[in-house]
Amino acid sequence: MTEHIGTTCVQGGYRPGDGEPRQVPIYQSTTWKYDTSEHMGRLFDLEEAGYFYTRLQNPTNDAVAAKIAELEGGAAAMLTSSGQAANFFAVFNIAGAGDHIVASSAIYGGTFNLLAHTLERMGVGCTFVAPDCTEAELEAAFRPNTKAVFGETIANPALDVLDIERFATAAHAHGVPLIVDNTFPTPIMCRPIEWGADIVTHSTTKYMDGHGAAVGGAIVDSGNFDWEAHAEKFPGLTQPDETYHGVVYTEKFGQAGAFITKATSQLMRDLGSIQSPMNAFLLNMGLESLHVRMPRHCANGQAMAEFLHDHPKVRFVKYPGLPDDPWYALAQKYLPNGSCGVVSFGFTGGRAAAEQFMKNLHVAQIATHVADARTCVLHPANATHRQMTDEELAAAGIAPDMVRLSCGLEDTEDLIADVAQALETV
């Protein structure tokens, strides 16, 4: 029987047997006991499945990762300590010193910094292209050493919509995978794998958790990219790994298991960005209501965008659900049932008006967060994107007076009333 996505939200990843716990158990243990050293040796050699140290794998984490894989329509998944760790692992699992990636310029500021600066110091170059770049500009961004293309389904906070099919086609023409961060829409509103994405990442801290309770991330592998067909580009997957006695991941774990197994056994082993079992448990609690919460977030976001659209003190509104938004057509294609609860807008009074507006909100709270049950607001140029230059801000679609308003689950009328009274003060 094929389940609807709401049933997967509630019951995916973990089905208890007779007399077993109804709720996903929290395996709050660092280690597992074995009767013989030989048994543990087989685990360390990847000859046998099992658990021995939570830094690599944990049953709680695996159950929740399996649910997220089901939700995205992927073959395998893993949890990480944060969304940033998920994006880093997804790229670094296939790109190293001397390699290159192509990325959309309209992405979260922390991810931009990761790709433009931190990975560059590790020898991985990045060429950024506008999400609406021409075919010639996109083609020119690729190099012989390009290993992946990266973008966000809905850019944070610019709210540009990635043309997933277009970027996937370009990536595949050059024999590399498309990695898509699907944090804002979640698989409830968009499943990038169905449009050609190969790897999907999430900051589970946001809508998936939904309550600002636990930081986390996830990586989902579609299982669709043929690493062996481009073996020379991905030696880490297609050639022997001497740190595991010469295992070849694509041969031993197949197209559907190679990417996640390598990320777990290599990167998690060496870098240790594991999500705690307690955080995974809290994440699962959020996932159980994701299909109920997302339509409400989207409804509040749409109503707020429509209210702000014609307000005399508002200079612009960015929301892909507005008919005159430049990304409306792509949103109708990829996000026909709604996008997210985040609205970005600027002020006729400039940056000073933005700061004054935020001071006078009551229901919405200033917080370095987005996409949870409580409405929150942030000034990106002064916070999450503070490290970017004016030129980089412009390329990312972020104006100095832009405010990012994340509509929560409160009554729509109360949210609009709060924003209306704060606008009266500027």
Strand order in the largest sheet: 1-7-6-5-4-2-3
**Biggest sheet: strands, sense, closure?**
7 strands, mixed
Q: Count of DSSP helices?
A: 16
The helix content is 25-40%
User: From the alpha-carbon coordinates, what is the Rg to the nearest angstrom?
Assistant: 22 Å
Provide the β-strand percentage band: 5-15%
Query: Low-confidence stretches at least 5 residues in length (pLDDT < 50)?
Result: none
Termini gap: 56 Å
The H/E string reads HHHEHEHEHEHEHEEHHHHEHEHEEHEH
Give the averaged pLDDT, no decimals: 95
Give a verbal description of the structure.
With 426 residues, this protein is α/β, with parallel strands linked by helices. Helices cover 39% and strands 13% of the residues. It has 16 helices and 12 strands. The chain has helices at residues 5-11, 37-44, 59-72, 83-92, 109-121, 135-141, 164-173, 186-189, 235-238, 249-271, 277-287, 290-309, 328-334, 350-359, 390-395, 412-423; strands spanning 76-80, 100-104, 125-129, 146-152, 178-181, 199-203, 217-221, 314-318, 342-347, 365-366, 376-378, 403-406. The protein has a 7-stranded mixed β-sheet with strand order 1-7-6-5-4-2-3, sandwiched between helices. A 5-stranded mixed β-sheet has the order 8-9-12-11-10. Helix 5 (109-121) links the parallel strand 2 and strand 3 (125-129). Helix 1 (5-11) packs antiparallel against helix 3 (59-72) and helix 3 (59-72) packs parallel to helix 11 (277-287). The longest helix has 23 residues, at 249-271. It starts with a helix and ends with a helix. The mean pLDDT is 95.
